[in-house]
Amino acid sequence: MSVRREIPDYDGFYFITITCARWIRLFDITNGYDIVYNWFDYLKDKGHFINGYVIMPNHIHALIGFCNTKGQSINSIVGNGKHFMAYEIVKRLKEKTESLLLGQLASFVNVTDSRKGKIHEVFEPSFDWKECKTNKFIEQKLNYIHDNPCRGAWNLAEQPEDYLHSSAKFYITGEQGVYRVTDIGVMEDIDLTKPKLN
Q1: Which H helix or E strand runs over 66?
Q2: Are the C-beta atoms of residues 36 and 55 closer than 8 Å to each other?
Q3: Taking the domain 12-134, which CATH number applies?
Q4: Per-residue pLDDT averaged across 131-138, rounded?
Q5: Across residues 4-9, what is the average pLDDT?
Q6: Domain residues of the chain, as ranges?
Q7: Average pLDDT over the chain, rounded to an integer
Q8: How far is it, in rounded angstroms, from Cα 89 to Cα 26?
Q9: pLDDT > 60? residue 3
Q10: What CA–CA distance (Å, rounded) separates 104 from 110?
Q11: What are phi and psi of 53, to 5 degrees?
């Protein structure tokens, strides 16, 4: 399990990983891939950049260019995103009458959070992050993201560009996939320390 660490900066490129509670395949069960895209849309509306991603059945990897967050911590931004996605996932589980699974998610809530009114633990309490300061590191992370569906026990696609919920298609073929990303190559001309004007 990841340890909660505060991101000290208010802008920059970050490789973010959000994992469903106990690695349950909640995005798959709820067909909740669009829930993540809605969060990405929200981030874009706030002036941030989605530069790469993969949505797996039970976790998300994303390379995000955070523009100056105007004093709001990146941890808060990601935490709010998790809250939004959790609400939508629980709503869909209720619609599908997934009572056993909802009960399981309820059993994961710790005593402190339960006293604060939390009912379900949809995601692992923390999220993993790595700051991406060099082009080489960014390239490594994009390759990791894009290879994820083809590695290990997953076998979700023959080639990275064949996996629907990933930016691999764009980076390999030049054609945008299901969700439009901003090419990491154009980011060198963008000053992330300044809030983006909408």
Answers
A1: strand 59-66
A2: yes
A3: 3.30.70.1290
A4: 95
A5: 82
A6: 12-134
A7: 93
A8: 7
A9: no
A10: 13
A11: -165, 160
